[in-house]
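Summary for the funding panel

The consortium committed to producing paired sequence-structure records for every protein in the target list. Below we show the first two records in order, beginning with the earlier of the two.
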Amino acid sequence: MTKKIISLIFFVLFSLTAYSQSPSTDSVYNQYLDFNLARFQGEDQDKIIQLGEDLLPYADKLPEKARINFYFSVGKMYEDNDQHNKALTYYEKVAIAVPDYYVVHRALGYLYLEKVKEIEGKLNSSSNDKALNEQVTKAYNDAVRKALPHLEKAQACDPSDETLAIIKTLYKNLKDDRGLNSLDSRLKELSKHCIDILNDR
């Protein structure tokens, strides 16, 4: 019985300590404003990353729209610093929260396209080993399938000859005639709902 009471007291004290160390909603929002100000003023990249990473554990205290905007900015921050896997994590959060925000889809599409190109290089060098070739081909196809929906949304909302050519090439590489033939109708449908700016209020 005594052990249970001691454990309970310890848990309550720990919870109160953790709560007292957690910043208030106002101070978290002020951190968010400081982070944005540093970005807009072109501060040193290391400083921006530090401000962003200091805020990340408390991002759930931001209002929803500000949090989504912050995640996009963090994704851009990591992309600019060549930390692409981290960038993907936060861009994906934004794409899930605001699926019609095509700017994030363009970023995701091109980041996934980099992975496609990496695998493509391995595909060319694995042609002599059948088992390895099959494994790399599957990884290539999976990477292409991840890139395509994002590239298509970006293309639908902000057409680009370059992006369109990439999309068509990827479908040809997949030997997916059905996907290629239905591309125009899919782009037309996707173009009906496009958001180009995130509001944080």
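The next record, for a separate protein in the list, is shown here:
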Amino acid sequence: MDGYDETTYGRLWAPHYDAAYSSVEDATIDLLARHAGDPPRALELAIGSGRIAVPLRERGVDVSGIDASEEMVELMRAKPGGGAIPVTMGNFGDVSVEGEFPLIYLAFNTIFALTSQEDQITCFQNVADHLESGGRFIIDCFVPDVRRFDDYNTHVGVSSIDSVDEHWLEMTVYDPVSQSVSSHMTKYKDGETVVLPVKLRFAWPSELDLMARLAGLELEDRFGWYDLRPFTEQSKSHMSIYVKPG
């Protein structure tokens, strides 16, 4: 997708992001808080609008973040308590921060926003370099399902119909060689149409496990979600916990 870089998503999605995505489940905050150490500290990669960071800070966790989008971070800073969360600006996959953390987390499929396998490997190594001994890296991702694409590796469908005057359409092209997906999410509301691009490079759970091993991390556990439901062959998402051996 020509013209798409690490700042595109945040710049174009920021005016619509919090309206499009609901608040985070309590189970997510509970699990992250349990793994944040004592005293509790955490680093969020791609902190964005603070959907996780703000409620996690309210739970007493000293949260820091990394993000490439000033527009998304401004959404967080406008929320109660969001202005007190320090953010390092840059690509979450390779930017350096000071110190080590008992918990680093990356939510909402965002590891896939790094659009090459090499960048994803670099991210895991960067995480390992900033984890304390015994610290954990927690991510959640969708499980890829290429059955949604037709014989031409495309998909067109309705994402949602929220009211009589609002709907979302999705147009996607899939490259099976690079495992990359380029999408246009089209929002129609009150007679106005907005096109929002998304570019991803998905990875299978086993591929993420190998990236972790290359970085010196070990898979500690995997669940179907933060509520600890089992991860099975029917699961559409996974929450994976990697540990830096002590």
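Regarding this second record: The radius of gyration is 18 Å. The chain has a mean pLDDT of 95.
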